[in-house]
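Hi there,

I know you've been waiting on this one. I reran it after we fixed the sequence typo, so this is the corrected version. Both the input and the resulting structure follow.
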Amino acid sequence: MHRALVLGIVTVSSVAFAGEPAAVPPRVPNPLDLVVPPANDGRPLVQVAILLDTSNSMDGLINQARTQLWTIVNEISKAKRAGQTPRLEVALYEYGNNNLAAGEGYIRMVTPFTSNLDDVSEKLFALSTNGGEEYCGAVIESATKSLKWSSDPAVYKGIFIAGNEPFSQGQTDYHSSIREAVGKGVVVNTIHCGPATVGTETGWAEGAKIGQGAFTNINQDIVRNIPRCPQDDRISTLSTEMNTTYLPFGTRGRAAAENQVTQDANAAKNAPSGAVAQRAASKAGQNYVNAEWDAVDAAAAGKLDLKTAKDTELPEKLQNKSPEERKAIVADMAKRREAIRDELNKLVAEREKLIAAAQREGDPTLDAAVIGSIRAQLGQQKYEFEGK
């Protein structure tokens, strides 16, 4: 079977076709209570859910999602509304995989909305493919009902669903699913993996029209090889150095710090795609915040009181220290991290200019489809983009 990738924020209800019994909404494990929500720091919010069809034919699409995640994150981080960079939440679903429960529509919530981008990357690299039935209407419905969408009308909420099987597969009527999404302020964008004419014939274009979103088509099997740049080695070194400025604490601190290194390594596996530099740029951006396990970010977010915290609640470097000593260590780490960020941002900007001059027009890939759509839609919400 073929597979689809869905990047999106979704809202849906299950409606059977005429003459058929009403479809029972698939039940999906909801681990929302296991994720520490990010602090509301007053910045505008962008919610994007990534729904990947993990049936057999879409290995190239999943690989694009893995290698281009950081490119998409970086583009969103270039947006400004009233001078503020938006806070980003990402959710991940998989569907269409025979390893998933048939009774749940071959659908699984991989991660609910989170600002922990390392976790999203980890989950993407853990996905595998296996046959399946791809039910676009059902996965849209499931994500809509299971994810914790913001009720604030000023929040951007957008689905990006990609695949190459007919959009109408399954008993859940995608027309009703998408209309319910729109009723909750969710934009539904569709990305057909293949010729645009086929996407139009098989419902992908209609889905976007109903969803008040964009219909695009891509070649999911394209592997982009980005030319090496003089800045690449220094960018990689700085990304590694940045990891030493984190002070892991709490029940998941050590594992999260190790995962940070692992996701650096995953990006390096796809070095020809430029993923190392794109990930480094994300780590230097405002949306790479780890307040749930890093004492520096936690203190800045007001989640960790360095004065009253017990030694058992603190990272080893802060234990057996006075409140003043704790604050001095955290301040030093924050200063070092900021210096690394400044240099990284400068090098990444130089690199982007070189890449832009060397790139040629070619078949569109996932990142281009998502970025083109989200730029236009954020623009309608009074966002402006830096440098463009």
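Quick highlight: The longest helix spans residues 323-358.

Best,
R. S.
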